[in-house]
């Protein structure tokens, strides 16, 4: 494959490989140069310069020894030799430190050894004999006068120290020159690296412009032409294989879009038609629900008066002619009175069901403790007769309509008392659990329970699981409870987990927290 047929990725990889190779070579060279520079700088700062200071200190210790001996020769006091002895100790320490500093400099070490020998000779041939003579003969002024030999020995030691200083200065200047050389090389390497990076960036920019930017711009122009409506225009592209393949894919997509355009337009027309039909059906369903609610309200309201009249006259007939007709007539009259009363209860419950959500006073913060307490008070007689126990504590404050919530708890508590087990006092436990912006309320009893297969059926209006002779009622109470909960934006269900009794759960929105007043 020739370089002209290389993919964009391969070309960029080749460029990056070349640049990376150069930078690696520069980095290795710079590292070696920097290491040498650091070593040479350390040699100047950490070895040669302290060694030069030590050479000056050696001369000062030699001078201390000479001065201390000369003072002893004039006074004869041993205390005047303290500086002499201390200077010897300092000299030995300085020589040891200097040997350590110049361990890598054999020539300078030779000079240091010569200094040690010269100072030892000074003490052996000049200082110690004069000290011994003074101790033996006493103080004599002529003893303190230096001889030519003493001057020669002292000057030899001092000259060696000056020679060491000169040699160290020369070596330091030589190493400092090497430091400057390696520093300049390091700077040149960094400049070369920067030049390589800049040239690589320029080459990459030119490569991207020639192989990416320009072909992509041309391809975008052709795509815009197709997007403008010229679906018959064939898209072509020049450049690396990736862009050529992309242009082929785009042209394939153009042909497919052009082929499917008619089908898409037809499908869109069908979808719009379906949407219109759905909107009409939704409007019709809304109107139908509204009409049904209105019919239920009007029917239940308008049936009140004739039904009340029928019930009143049946009761009047029962009171006036009870016992005056035969037993069958009394039975028929009883059936009529019972039927009229049950019809009244059905109509009242239906009226209550239809009014939910129609007559509203608006949502407020409602304390469920007060609601449950008021609802429980409605069943004081039944509680006393059955020994029922209603347990609740620390119920939350929710957002809703207090009358409807009262009807909700009245239905659930009434059902729990009505559907109790024989000879078992009803026990009703009401509890709550906080959720995300809502509360889950539970109402559990120890009654006869509800089979799981009927858990949804009991919430349907007029659905009964027992004969009216066994458990009286209209079969609308739980339907009212469900409508109240859903009107408050919640849901209600039967939890099948209890082994006995029934556990109702439903959700209600939490009260809106009051905003704290900002300080004045």
Describe the structure.
There is one protein chain. The protein has 520 residues and is an alpha+beta fold. The protein contains 12 helices and 7 strands. It has helices spanning 8-75, 82-101, 106-137, 141-144, 148-227, 241-302, 304-321, 327-355, 368-377, 380-386, 402-418, 477-487, and strands spanning 364-367, 389-392, 397-400, 427-434, 438-444, 492-495, 503-509. It has a 5-stranded mixed beta sheet with strand order 2-4-5-7-6. It has a two-stranded antiparallel sheet with strand order 1-3. Strand 6 (492-495) and strand 7 form a beta hairpin. Helix 7 (304-321) packs antiparallel against helix 8 and helix 11 packs antiparallel against helix 12 (477-487). The longest helix has 80 residues, at 148-227. The two termini are 80 Å apart.
Helix content: 55-70%
- Global structural class: alpha+beta
List the secondary-structure elements in sequence, H or E: HHHHHHHHEHHEEHEEHEE
User: Biggest sheet, open or closed, and with what strands and sense?
Assistant: 5 strands, mixed
Number of helices: 12
Q: Which residue ranges are poorly predicted, with pLDDT under 50 across at least 5 consecutive positions?
A: 514-520
Q: Roughly how many Å apart are the termini?
A: 80 Å
Strand coverage percent: 5-15%
Looking at the chains present, what oligomeric state does this protein adopt?
single chain
Strand order of the largest sheet: 2-4-5-7-6
| Overall outline | elongated
Number of DSSP strand runs: 7
Radius of gyration equals 57 Å
Mean pLDDT: 80
Short description:
This protein has 520 residues and is α+β, with helices and mostly antiparallel strands.
